[in-house]
C-alpha cells in the first residue's frame, strides 16, 4: 500500500464515521421529539406524562452535546494527523535529552493532554449544565476538580508503567514483541480488575457494608440460592455526585463485590432490589463476565498483531503525515490508538447486539431466581427516575445501546410470565 492511498482511506473513514455518528444523533433527536408528548401504550398509567417529556428533553440535550463533542473530537484527530500535530510533538519530544522510551512517554502524555483540553469543556457542560438542568447533578466544582486530579494521578501511575513496558518490548524483544506485549497487557488488565474494588474505587466513593435488616437477609438468601460467594455487599454514596441510581458487579475470584448506589436502595422496594441483584448475578452465573474477558483477550491479541505489522510499514507513518521513526516505537503506538476507533466504529452494532443478548439472558435468570414482576416494576421505576427515554430511534438504539429498550425488556419479561407495568399497579 502507498502512503497516499492510506491517507485517502483514512480520511474517507474519518468522514464516514463522523457523518454516520451525526446522522444517527439527528435521527435520535427527531424521533424522541416526535414522540415527546405521548407515553407509549405499554407504559400508560405507569409513567407520568411530565416524566416522559422530561426524559425526552434530557435525551435530546445529551444527544445535542454528543454531536458537538464528536465534531470536536474529529477536528482534534485531523489536527494531530493531517495537520501534522503528532509530527510536531514527535519532533519536540525528540529534543529532550532523555532515553527514547521516556521521549515516547512524553509524546503519549502530550497527545493525551491535547485531547483532554478539548474534552474538558464538554465534561463541564454535561455535569454543570445538562445534568443540573434536569435535577441530576449533585457534584460541586471542588469535588469535580478533585475527581479530575485523582483520576489523572491514577491514570498516570497505572498507565505509565505498562506503556513504558510496551514501548521497551517494541524496541528490544524482536519480531515477536507483540506476543510479549499482549501477555503483559492481559496480566495488567486482570490485575486491575482484581485491584479496582479494593484499592481504586474507594479513592472516589465511600463503600459501606449493607446494613443488617430485612433487605440484607433477603439479599443474602438470594446469594445462597444462586451459589454465589463474594467478599460482601456494599452501598456506594452515588448520591454525592448524582441522583441517578444503579447497581453493579465488580471484581473476580475472591475479590468479587456487589455494589448498590444509595440512590437505588432508597428508591426500590425490597423485592425490586432483590430482582435487580438477581439480574446482576445472572451475568456472573451465565459466564457473561468470563466471555467478555475472553473476547477482549482475542481482540487485543489481533490488535497487537496488527500494530506489529503497521509499525514496520513506512506508509502507515507517512500516510498520517509523520516521518517514519524506527528508533521511536512509541510513535507507532500513538498513531495506532488515534486511528483505531475510526476503523472499528462500524463494529459498534455487533458489540451492542452481543451486550443486549446478555441483558435478555440476565433478565430471564432474574425472573427464575427472584420475581419477574418485581424486575418489571424496578425497570420502569429506574427508567423514570433516570429520565431514560422510552422512545429511542430504532437505528440509534441498534447501533449504540448496550441494553435493550425498556419496552423490549418488559415485553421479554411478559413472555416469561411477568405482568405488564400497568397490571403490576402503581409503585
How would you sum up this structure, described in words?
Strands 1-2-4-3 form a four-stranded mixed sheet. It has a domain at 1-137 and 328-427. Strand 3 and strand 4 form a beta hairpin. The longest helix has 34 residues, at 100-133. Helices cover 71% and strands 4% of the residues. It is built from 17 helices and four strands. With 427 residues, the chain is mainly alpha-helical. It is globular and about 65 Å long.
Topology diagram in text:
Blueprint: H1 3-34, H2 49-80, H3 85-94, H4 100-133, H5 141-172, H6 177-200, E1 207-209, H7 214-226, E2 233-236, E3 247-250, E4 257-261, H8 262-267, H9 270-285, H10 288-311, H11 314-319, H12 329-344, H13 348-369, H14 372-385, H15 394-400, H16 406-415, H17 421-424
Parallel strand pairs: 2-4
Antiparallel strand pairs: 1-2, 3-4
Helix pairs in contact: 1-2, 1-15, 2-4, 3-4, 4-5, 4-12, 5-6, 6-10, 7-9, 9-13, 9-14, 14-16
Q: What value does the Rg take, in angstroms?
A: 24 Å
Please state how the strands of the largest beta sheet are arranged side by side: 1-2-4-3
Shape: globular
Helix and strand element order: HHHHHHEHEEEHHHHHHHHHH
User: What distance separates the N and C termini?
Assistant: 62 Å
Number of helices: 17
Name the helicity range: over 70%
Which consecutive residue ranges, at least 5 long each, have pLDDT under 50?
Answer: 420-427
Classify the beta-strand content into a percent band.
Answer: under 5%
